[in-house]
Amino acid sequence: MQEELIKKAGKYLANTYNRYPITATKGEGCWLWDLEGRRYLDFLAGIAVCNLGHARKEVIDGLTAQAAKLFHVSNLFYMEPQVKAAQLLVENSFGDKVFFCNSGAEANEAAIKLARRYSWKRYGEGRHEIIVMENSFHGRTMATLSATGQFKFHEGFAPMLPGFVYVPFNNLSAAEKAINEKTCAVMLEPIQAEGGIYPADKEYFTALRTMTKEKDILMILDEVQTGMGRTGKFFAYEHYGVEPDIMSLAKALGNGFPVGAIVAKDEVMEAFVPGTHAATFGGNPLAASAVIATINALIDEGVIKHCEEIGQYLYQGLLSLKKKYPFIIDIRGMGLIRGIELSIDGDSIQREFMKEGIILNCTKGRILRLVPPLIVNKEEIDIFLETADRIFSKQPKGENG
To answer: Which helix (H) or strand (E) holds 348?
Structure first.
């Protein structure tokens, strides 16, 4: 039955994904089931989306109650759930205003437009360039693809949109040298997630924020993957003790329901006025109800504190594996976004985990990305660590000593 469905997918779906040979049919907490009834421990969480786990009751209840009343009316109307969702984001972040959209790429697109329009209103034409980081990932639209500092994603889509200047990540002097009279913003991820789980150095991050303030250049933080408790803080910028001007969110914002947003300071968001930007479905009643339920559960259930503690438990277990297996080069990340860098092929290791009933991701061919639901418990972490130990022990003697 599963093989038949996979064949149909090959016939009817665009070939844009290297899909796992699994047809997911049900999820609960940190676990997934396929069409054949096999259970998997999910350390991917929809790519850092289902922070509260699968089939979270509060989100289901919020969506169900709202679906019975109103799906959509467009942003030509005021919507009570949208206002409540925006209030919760403002009350739990640096920002004053929220713009809702549908995805991370849309959120980053909105952030780029907002930065350019803010600078245009303040300084006039010509100040439009955005400094972005090598090895970054910001999305698949033409603007966010152009902002992405991994050139493999650009292949076949040239020309890229102008106005983006690429500099090395965690290199303050390179950023400083790139700033000129055309620069309006610096855009970066607190942790380069798709790029291999590379966190920004604290000294670099804080100095970059100081420099941008001195030059009246906006700081845009892409927290699409790091936001909503993933790092053990509500937002990753909290680890650094500084605040951005604009922040993009998506992925876990609705715990799986498609929704994105940008959060910004009043003086910046004032650059958007009616007619300058829009999203037909952005923050509609269903999406907003998912945001409300997600944020309330994160706060009321102590999920973020749990993430911080269990993230340390996972990290210590990973360090123990690193001591045991020399082909583990590095362990990186914060909270429950962790990367295991290998000197051996990571794609084959990822497939071994899948055979053992654990779903995770490999990026850049040799970095295992772990982003389990934030509700993962010690027993489930232990299952992962024991499985990892078993898989790593089977690697050729020449690789692991």
So the answer is: helix 346-355
* C-beta separation of 390 from 356 below 8 A: yes
Distances in whole angstroms, Cα of residue 236 to Cα of each of 77, 92, 333, 334, 400: 33, 13, 11, 9, 34
- Using CA atoms, how far apart are residues 345 and 347, in angstroms rounded to an integer? 6
For residue 249, give every residue at least 6 positions away whose Cβ sits within 8 Å of its Cβ, in sequence order, or none.
89, 104, 107, 223, 224, 227, 228, 260, 261, 262, 263
| pTM of the full structure | 0.96
Q: How many CA atoms lie within 13 A of 60 on its CB side?
A: 9
Q: Walk along the chain (401 residues) in steps of 10 and give the mean pLDDT of each run.
A: 88 93 95 96 98 97 98 96 98 98 98 98 96 98 98 96 98 98 98 97 98 97 98 98 97 98 98 97 98 98 97 98 97 98 96 98 96 98 98 74 41
Q: Are 115 and 265 in contact (CB under 8 A)?
A: no
Pick the CATH number of 319-367+388-393 from 3.90.1150.10, 3.40.30.10, 3.30.1490.150, 3.10.400.10: 3.90.1150.10
CATH 3.90.1150.10 intervals, the chain:
319-367+388-393
Alpha-carbon span 192 to 207, nearest angstrom: 18
What is the distance between the alpha carbons of residues 336 and 311, in angstroms, rounded to a whole number? 5
- Stretch (H or E) spanning 268: helix 266-269
- The CATH 3.40.640.10 domain(s) of the chain lie at 57-300
Q: Are strands 183-188 and 191-192 parallel, antiparallel or unpaired?
A: unpaired
Q: pLDDT of 37-83, one tens digit each? A: 999 999 999 999 999 999 999 999 999 999 999 999 999 999 999 99
**230-288 pLDDT, tens per residue?**
999 999 999 999 999 999 999 999 999 999 999 999 999 999 999 999 999 999 999 99
* Model pLDDT, residue 316: 98
Any idea which fold 57-300 has?
A: Aspartate Aminotransferase; domain 2 (3.40.640)
| In contact, 69 and 263? CB cutoff 8 Å | no
Provide the angle, in degrees to the nearest 10, between the axes of the packed helices 378-393 and 303-324. 20
